[in-house]
Specification:
Layout (H helix, E strand, L loop, with lengths): L1 H19 L3 E3 L2 H25 L1 H6 L4 H17 L3 E3 L2 H31 L1
Antiparallel strand pairs: 1-2
Helix pairs in contact: 1-2, 1-5, 2-4, 4-5
């Protein structure tokens, strides 16, 4: 259930980012859900390998290199998705990864965690 919520939240965040950045294009809601699903699979398998390979750089940059890794996973996702998900450049992917990380953090802290705490009580 948590994974499905994560897919839906990421799809909404991708739609929001596509609305604000002109060089970040999504075909529609279906493309957003597909990109979110594909991105979660890439984050599950590819991202840990990238993190391990770039660990020295990540430590030297105090973790900020993780935004670059997130941008790389976004670029991989858009390469697989084809014309339904287009990012015009790596700079856009980097900016989008920062915005996506911030929005996911806000949604997690403001919406999801309070709901989970309510269910525990």
């Amino acid at each position: 259930m948590r994974w499905i919520v994560s897919i839906i939240v990421n799809a909404l965040v991708l739609i929001v980012v596509a609305g604000y950045l002109d060089s970040f294009h999504l075909e529609g809601v279906g493309a957003a859900i597909g990109a979110s699903l594909l991105l979660s699979i890439i984050n599950l398998f590819v991202k840990p390998i990238l993190v391990i390979l770039t660990l020295p750089v990540t430590v030297l940059t105090l973790g900020f290199f993780l935004f670059v890794i997130n941008a790389i996973t976004l670029m991989i996702t858009q390469a697989i998705m084809g014309d339904s998900f287009i990012i015009d450049g790596f700079g856009t992917a980097l900016l989008a990864s920062i915005i996506i990380s911030i929005l996911n953090l806000l949604i997690q802290k403001v919406i999801i965690e309070p709901i989970q705490e309510k269910k525990k009580k």
